[in-house]
Amino acid sequence: MSVVKKFCHEYVEFSPKSVSRFLESCPLDEVVAFLDSLDTDGLKLLLPQMNSYLVGSFLLQGQNSAPESLNYLSDVHAAAVLSGISESQRKPILERIDHKKRLKIGRLISFIPGSAGSVMDSAVLPVQSSDTVKSCAASISGGGRHDYYIYVVSEENILIGVTTMRRVFEMKNSLDPILTIMDEHVNTIRVDDSTPEVLANPGWDDNHAMPVVDYHGKLLGVIRYSTLKSMQKRRHINHGKNEAHLTGTELGELYSLGFSAFLGGTGSVAKEMSKDYE
Predict the structure, then answer these.
(1) What is the reported pTM?
(2) Neighbouring residues of 16: CB distance < 8 A, sequence distance ≥ 6
(3) What's phi and psi for 86, nearest 5 deg?
(4) E strands, the chain, where?
């Protein structure tokens, strides 16, 4: 019986990141078989931790409800997964997921991989320049999708200013136009900016979220500080770590958690790999 098939499912629940890293070193057909053996709860924990290639292979080869597994991923992760397969393979998978998620994923796929457009959150709700402060406050109170920063756009969806939720609620009964409490200077990221350009944008010194615009200044989405940190982490991993060392470290971690208790042979391998990479 293969190493992957002997994986105890409890480790998916206990340390999904470590399991996902270990799976990267295993034969693809065994990885797919292992994923296919997991229940819904296991897939929800493990798939978001896995790289796009392995998730894409599972979508194409898995025997269970693999296409629905896209619902367990963020929109950006799902777009990255589908970008790695052909359009003909992608279409039937997209047809089996939620309509709203399908639209978001489709929009993200259209952007250049690794660009600002491919990692932004397009679910940003701007305020029209003709709106009053009171109507804006009512929209926020009513559950509208707003962040701390409130972006103001023209009728053509051109970004023209920014204000904050705090300013809006300080004047929540005012019938003045939202224009009266906005700043016209807005730090922005262009949709085709590369990862290094996004990370180096000086606007991060003063903002914890930045709007993404196209060539005409139209608001397309937002990149938040949490996404920035994820981009920094991925870049650090890609440039600063050897893949073999990473696999050895994760396998050693599983061993230390008690992996050898149910798979003695794999425990020995983990020991040896840990020695090799000390």
Answers:
(1) 0.54
(2) 45, 46, 49
(3) -70, 160
(4) 127-128, 149-153, 159-164, 189-190, 209-213, 219-224
